[in-house]
Specification:
Blueprint (H helix, E strand, L loop, with lengths): L1 E9 L3 H9 L1 H7 L4 E5 L9 E8 L2 E13 L2 E8 L4 E13 L2 E12 L3 H25 L1
Antiparallel strand pairs: 1-7, 2-3, 3-4, 4-5, 5-6, 6-7
Organism: Exiguobacterium chiriqhucha RW-2
Protein name: Cyclase
């Protein structure tokens, strides 16, 4: 298992960032790699199953997660049906107030069929970086 955190500060209110983060349909619109399509309800409430299609090139694979915990400006999704190369995936999403900024915190724990360091640095970290840039553009518009 591999675990890493990503902390992304934004010049906005915690409430505004939290509202954006909870909208799974926005995830579909903002994620350019891989292409993400929401299938059904994307509510970040405990017990909800979030169904996504992850597209890389001409291939589209299912990614289903269940929201296992939802609380004050935080929720956790656990992968239940994951595409290759993932074996397990857990993602805590949290928003904090730090020095006058809203900070998006992503706590990721995963295991994969290929070396996890490669998945982290060539798939997940670039995805989080692109998502942060897309969130910033949305906040600036």
């Amino acid at each position: 298992m591999r675990q890493f955190d990503v902390r992304t500060p934004f010049d906005t209110s915690v409430d505004t960032l939290w509202t954006l983060l909870q909208d799974a349909s926005l995830l579909s619109k903002l994620t350019s790699f891989p292409k993400v399509t929401l299938v059904g309800d994307g509510a970040s409430v405990e017990g909800n199953v979030v169904q996504l299609r992850i597209g890389v090139g001409p291939v589209s694979l299912p990614w289903n997660s269940v929201i296992t915990l939802a609380g004050d400006r935080a929720f956790c999704d656990q992968g239940v049906k994951l595409p290759f190369p993932f074996r397990r995936f857990s993602h805590v999403h949290r928003v904090e107030q730090v020095d006058g900024q809203a900070v998006m915190v992503d706590e990721v724990t995963f295991d994969s069929y290929v070396p996890t360091v490669l998945v982290e640095y060539f798939v997940l970290r670039p995805m989080f970086k692109a998502r942060a840039e897309a969130f910033q553009k949305t906040l600036n518009s």
